[in-house]
Design goal:
The complex is a heterodimer of chains A (78) and B (266).
Chain A: E1 9-14, E2 17-22, H1 27-33, E3 42-45, E4 48-49, E5 65-73
Parallel strand pairs in A: 1-5
Antiparallel strand pairs in A: 1-2, 3-4, 3-5
Chain B: E1 2-4, E2 7-9, E3 13-16, H1 23-33, E4 37-44, H2 54-57, E5 64-67, H3 75-89, E6 93-96, H4 109-121, E7 125-130, H5 134-142, E8 149-150, H6 164-173, E9 179-181, H7 187-195, E10 200-203, H8 205-208, H9 213-233
Parallel strand pairs in B: 3-4, 3-10, 4-5, 6-7, 7-8, 9-10
Antiparallel strand pairs in B: 1-2
Helix pairs in contact in B: 1-9, 3-4, 5-6, 7-9
The chains are: A mainly beta (78), B alpha/beta (266).
């Protein structure tokens, strides 16, 4: 008999799009799952900038909104 | 050597990293420019196509990253971007841009002053992008701006130093470095700014969209050096009338004086 461990999925909004993640996923794990590096990504969690030191210990709640932001080429203006 | 907020730069050419055709062209052009300070913008990651990470494309030992707040339309948005820049890059340096009108991209002086005050209080090293307004430049340095960045002409126009007279006043009054930014479209434009005594210039579009960006980067680097050397050497005064630079003496042979008439009673 296989052992079945139910993993609770929750839905968040990440960069404007709905995304399913396992409950208990940290922001650091989410960044990694998106193919990015924590060291070069800034995160807004429900409109507040997260300190990079908190990426490991912050677990997005269902319905929360995250923005993953990073540097791109730019001089002035947009 | 140029020093801003205690940090020294050998190169007085700052370069923007936007608009390059490819990451490889950007990297090679930035190396050819000799720049040690490059500006970067902040944007939401496209999770469907994350692409290259500029933080890993460029050697951060060689290039000091100056995040900008491009896209901010008021002080609150600029401050939000400043906090994100600090989280993304671990730097508290910031090129503050507040441009409410996307058509002109001219900076909002009131919101820029407000944001500078707040960000300096929070410990940021703030380099505000401003119109060439000498009074605003003084107000900004009074509230703790680390440098001021007056525009030569609107962003991306390549029109050169249309603000020459006002930039000259800013340079004369400034106690912080003056970095002429925006609109500098040719090496002659940056040479002009540097000859006037600007401490540095920031160029992006003119290099990035050149036929050969790498060659153009080097042309700008040489023009910045030439302009700076000319400023340090001291330019001659301008005058309205002509003044010969060949000696006036020794031309007698061309038009000999007529010999005096012999005197009758001699």
């Amino acid at each position: 008999m296989g052992y079945y461990c139910p993993v609770m999925k929750i839905s968040i909004i990440c960069n404007g799009e709905p995304r399913e993640i396992e409950d208990g996923t940290s922001v650091a794990q989410l960044i990694y799952a998106c193919g990015l590096k924590s060291a070069t990504v800034a995160v807004e969690y429900d409109g507040r900038v997260l300190a990079p030191a908190a990426y490991e210990s912050t677990f997005p709640a269902a319905g929360s909104r995250l923005e993953l932001i990073r540097f791109v080429g730019g001089g002035s203006g947009c | 050597m140029l020093t801003i907020a205690g940090r020294s730069f050998r190169s007085r050419l700052f370069t923007g990293t936007g608009k390059f055709a490819s990451a490889q062209v950007m990297r090679t052009a930035l190396e050819a420019s000799g720049s040690e300070m490059v500006t970067v913008a902040l944007r939401r990651v496209d999770l469907h196509d994350p692409g290259d990470d500029i933080m890993r494309l460029l050697d951060r030992e060689r290039f000091f990253f100056l995040p900008n707040t491009s896209g901010a339309r008021d002080a609150a948005e600029a401050i939000r971007l400043a906090h994100l820049a600090r989280a993304a890059g671990g730097t508290n340096w910031l090129k503050l841009e507040v441009t409410p009108d996307p058509r002109t991209l001219l900076p909002d002086p009131v919101e820029t002053l407000k944001a500078t005050e707040e960000l300096v209080r929070e410990g940021f090293v703030v380099l505000p992008y401003i119109n060439a307004d000498p009074i605003l430049a003084l107000r900004l340095q009074d509230v703790g701006a680390a440098a001021v960045m007056p525009l030569g002409s609107p962003i991306g126009t390549n029109l050169g130093l249309q603000t020459r007279l006002l930039v000259a006043i800013i340079i004369e009054q400034a106690r912080v470095p003056v970095v002429v930014d925006a609109g500098l479209g040719a090496p002659s434009h940056v040479a002009e700014a540097m000859e006037m005594g600007a401490d540095a210039v920031l160029v992006n579009t003119a290099i990035a969209v050149a036929g050969e960006p790498v060659k153009m980067a080097e042309a700008f680097a040489r023009a910045v050096e030439a302009g700076r050397m000319a400023f340090e050497a001291g330019l001659g005064a301008q005058r309205a009338g002509a003044e010969a630079s060949s000696p006036l003496a020794g031309l007698d042979f061309l038009r000999p004086e007529p010999s005096p008439e012999p005197s009758i009673d001699a």
